[in-house]
Amino acid sequence: MNNKIMIFIIVVIVIVIAVLGGVFYLTPYKQSISKTPSGSQATQNTNQNEVTIKDFSFSPEAITVKAGSSVTFTNKDSVTHTITETNKAFDKEIGPGDTLKITFDKAGTYNYHCSIHPSMKGKVIVQ
Predict the structure, then answer these.
(1) Edge-to-edge strands of the sheet including 121-126?
(2) 46 burial level (CB within 10 Å; 0-12, 13-18, 19+)
(3) Considering just the CA atoms, what is the radius of gyration of the chain in Å?
(4) 72-103 b/e (C-beta count within 10 Å ≥ 16 → b)
(5) Which residues on neighbouring strands pair with residue 104, listed in sequence order?
(6) All domains in the chain, ordered by first residue
(7) Residue 22 CA from chain centroid, whole number
(8) What is the pLDDT confidence band of residue 58, given thresholds at 50, 70 and 90?
(9) Cα separations (Å) of 74 from 5, 13, 27, 54, 65?
(10) 8 Å CB contact between 104 and 28
């Protein structure tokens, strides 16, 4: 292989790694996905920062939290949905029975929707 081609490939790989590293470093949220095993009783959560997905809607449709707080999304529908932020700050699938926890570290308004069912919309306001 030509030396110029090898150098070009190495430069492209370094740039891709740098860009991805920057994206992950600057991302204003953290996330984790967990699923309660079917047939088991879920522990009652007293966390008020919860959004339930049921009957093809987010409830509540708007929620206000403090910076550094987490919002837990629970899918109680029998189909998969997404939680897709308008500016692509996050875009995650959430299957039936799954929960998705997103931590919002930066103040701002995060409008989101389900990319599979676009009429489903919600908003997280972070103070």
Answers:
(1) 62-65, 121-126, 108-113, 81-85, 91-94
(2) exposed
(3) 18
(4) bbbbebeeebbbbbeeebbebbbeeebbbbbb
(5) 29, 69
(6) 30-36+48-126 (2.60.40.420)
(7) 18
(8) very high
(9) 49, 38, 22, 9, 17
(10) yes
Q: Give the C-alpha separation, 54 to 108, whole Å.
A: 26
Summarize pLDDT for 10-30 with one digit per residue, the tens: 877 877 776 655 544 444 444
Question: Is 28 exposed, middle or buried (CB count within 10 Å of its CB: 0-12, 13-18, 19+)?
Answer: middle
pLDDT band at 48 (very low <50, low <70, confident <90, very high): confident
Query: Taking Cα atoms as reference points, which of 31, 79, 75 lies closest to residue 51?
Result: 75
Contact 44, 67 (CB under 8 A): no
> CA neighbours within 13 Å on the CB side: how many for 121?
4
What residue has token string 């030509």? 2
Rounded Cα gap, residues 118 and 28, in angstroms: 23
The pair of structure tokens assigned to 1 is 């292989």
